[in-house]
Every structure is written in C-alpha cells, then in structure tokens.
Backbone:
C-alpha cells in the first residue's frame, strides 16, 4: 500500500514493532528502501520504542512527577518539519513542553474563573468519553458551575465523573480562541487539528480509558495529568475506566 515496502511498514506503520522487523529480515525482506525523508529501514527502526524488561506502566513514578518514558522536547527549539519527520511520520508520541506558555488561556483559565464566566454552560459528565454510546448508562445533564463546585469524592468501587465536551466551540467560542493550536503543530505539521476541539475537565482520578485515534494534540492548562502510552503492537480500545483494569 502507498508504495511502501513491507520492511518500511514494519517500522513506520500502525502495527510497527521490532518483532515484526525481525521476522521480515529472517524472511529475506528488502531492506534497501528509504522513506520520504531519506532514512533507511535501520534508521527508522532505531526510533521504535523498546520494551523495558522488568518494568511496567506505573514504574516511571509518573504520579509523583518522576521520569517520562516518551520523548520530551522544548517547543521553542523545534519546527513543524521536525515534528513531522521525527514523530508523526514514525508514529512516535512526544511531550512538548512550553507549547502553550504564551497563550491567553494559561493566564485566564482556572476553576473559579471558569465557573464565574461560563458556569451556565450545559455539560454531561460521564465516567468515560462516549459512555452512553457504549451502553454504560445515560450521562446526567448539569451546568459547568455545578460540576466544578460538586464534591467529587468517589465511593468505593465507583469512578469519578468528568466532562468531555466536543461542542465547546459552539457553546463558548471565546474559550476556544484563547487556546490556539501551537505554532509548532500548525499547518506545517499537517495535523489539521482545528477540525475537532474538545474541552476536558475533571477531578483527581478521572480520565479516559485506553483508546486510539488519528494524530491528536492534548494540552494541559491546570493540574496534573498522566498519559499511559502503549506500544503500537499493543494498542487496545477499552470501554473501562483505568482504575477498573490492571495496567
């Protein structure tokens, strides 16, 4: 497909993995092909994440602000072309620090200000995004002010609710204008992220389960967030909150 060799797909496709690369090499696959950036199969293979023996997702001490297993780049030091070459085209996740450092939302948004200025927006808190579509119960309508002011201490066996709103631009267009797509992820990066914007807010422990989608940018304005990233050959789409499964 798309003129790519089997070896290129093994290191640059949705199921890229070193195990598949090894199988192809043993089967005599053509390793002479290069990608659009002039990189050989071996150069692309070096970009694949390696499985760390004796470790698991929680071992990185992410909850306490410890190490990060994905590439971390200061947004001011890279351009859109580098993002495409080193991450998008090889499907590598990247943490961009400071990409929103100068946006208006960083200075304007906090819980009290959101409640004061946009508290009457209707929202539909759920345990996971699209929970009602998955048959996990109907989302209850409330206002943003009521949600932000509620006690979100979950009882034993329950998961905390959070807001995942895809219609935020229609409900509050001024909020979207304070959060422009960072320049480094603009048109040069071929992301077309303006096609869909989502507004997410929730208490400690809330969040989405494992899932996949096309290229996406997630920005953090307040608080702390942990992202669990699986290897391309281990992707899953789960309907269960992370607290209910073994990570």
Residues:
């Amino acid at each position: 497909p798309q003129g790519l060799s089997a070896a290129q797909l093994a290191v640059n496709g949705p199921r890229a993995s070193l195990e598949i690369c090894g199988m192809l090499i043993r089967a005599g696959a053509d390793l002479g092909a290069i990608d659009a950036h002039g990189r050989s199969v071996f150069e692309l293979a070096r970009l694949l994440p390696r499985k760390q023996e004796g470790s698991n997702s929680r071992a990185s001490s992410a909850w306490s602000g410890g190490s990060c297993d994905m590439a971390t780049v200061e947004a001011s030091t890279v351009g859109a072309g580098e993002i495409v070459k080193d991450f998008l085209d090889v499907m590598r996740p990247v943490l961009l620090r400071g990409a929103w450092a100068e946006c208006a939302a960083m200075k304007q948004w906090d819980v009290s200000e959101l409640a004061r200025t946009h508290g009457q927006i209707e929202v539909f808190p759920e345990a996971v995004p699209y929970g009602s579509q998955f048959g996990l119960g109907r989302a209850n309508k409330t206002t943003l002010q009521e949600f932000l002011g509620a006690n979100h201490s979950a009882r034993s066996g329950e998961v905390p609710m959070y807001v995942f709103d895809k219609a935020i631009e229609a409900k509050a267009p001024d909020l979207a204008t304070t959060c422009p797509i960072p320049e480094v992820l603009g048109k040069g990066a071929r992301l077309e992220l303006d096609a869909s914007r989502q507004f997410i807010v929730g208490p400690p422990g809330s969040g989405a389960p494992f899932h996949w989608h096309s290229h996406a940018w997630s920005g953090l304005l307040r608080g702390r967030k942990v992202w669990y990233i699986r290897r391309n050959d281990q992707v899953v789409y789960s309907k269960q909150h992370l607290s209910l499964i073994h990570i």
Observations:
- Confidence is low (pLDDT under 50) at residues 51-66.
- Strands lie at 71-74, 94-97, 122-123, 142-143, 163-165, 199-201.
- The first strand starts at residue 71 and ends at 74.
- Residues 18-26 form the longest helix (9 residues).
